[in-house]
Amino acid sequence: MTAVEARDVVLSFGETPALRGATVAVAPGEIVAIMGPSGSGKSTLLHCLAGILVPDTGEIHFDGRRIDTLNENQRSILRRDRFGFVFQSGQLVPELTAEENVALPLLLNGMKRAAALKEARPWFERLDLTGLERRRSGELSGGQAQRVALARGLVARPGALFADEPTGALDSLTGEQVMDLLVSSARDEGTTVVLVTHDARVAAYADRQVIVRDGKVNALVSA
Ligand SMILES: Nc1ncnc2c1ncn2[C@@H]1O[C@H](COP(=O)(O)OP(=O)(O)OP(=O)(O)O)[C@@H](O)[C@H]1O
Known about the structure:
Blueprint: E1 4-13, E2 16-26, E3 31-35, H1 42-49, E4 57-62, E5 65-66, H2 72-82, E6 83-86, H3 98-108, H4 113-126, H5 142-154, E7 160-164, H6 172-189, E8 192-196, H7 200-203, E9 208-213, E10 216-222
Parallel strand pairs: 3-8, 3-9, 6-7, 7-8
Antiparallel strand pairs: 1-2, 1-4, 4-5, 9-10
The chain binds adenosine-5'-triphosphate (ATP).
């Protein structure tokens, strides 16, 4: 049984081939880091796995269900209901407070504001953010903002969390703190995680590392 899987995925942007037959399978609760050179297709693979991009050929599966054949609207509902996302930086809504940002996926799922804020609050203690609930993103450090983004990615208890360079904008110590919290929270929740990073120290937090080269997943390294 796999949680997230790409089978022989091919995708080009016009004349530019990004994926040339990429295959990867992630087990439920597993944390996998996608590594590889710049331009090798890491982000494109992540976006395919997360139902953001649709492959030209090949298949994407989530929880035993094929998702690349869903239409745009169905994929958008799947992303909203089952997936969490953390990107490099700058993805908090600046007009909202930190706790409103964390509550956002719940509000989008139709939860009432008071209930969503109540669900959001324990994440501040869990991610070492106590006291920062009412700050806006401009009043947070990079590491704090990234932990708020992580809380937002996990608050709706997604089946899978997709993270693209989640520590890319942070110094190495702050990046390691964020990874530590990402891995421990995902393990507590049993969340499957797929993350893209070019940083070997970040990848070392994963259960398994896969290397993408020239649009193919061509090496497996046990962590
Ligand atoms: N939206 C796009 N339009 C056109 N070409 C794209 C687009 N996105 C990616 N590409 C191209 O597809 C290839 C793979 O890109 P991708 O972003 O997946 O690589 P990556 O391994 O994540 O790179 P990096 O580590 O530099 O972020 C590259 O040649 C890139 O230029």
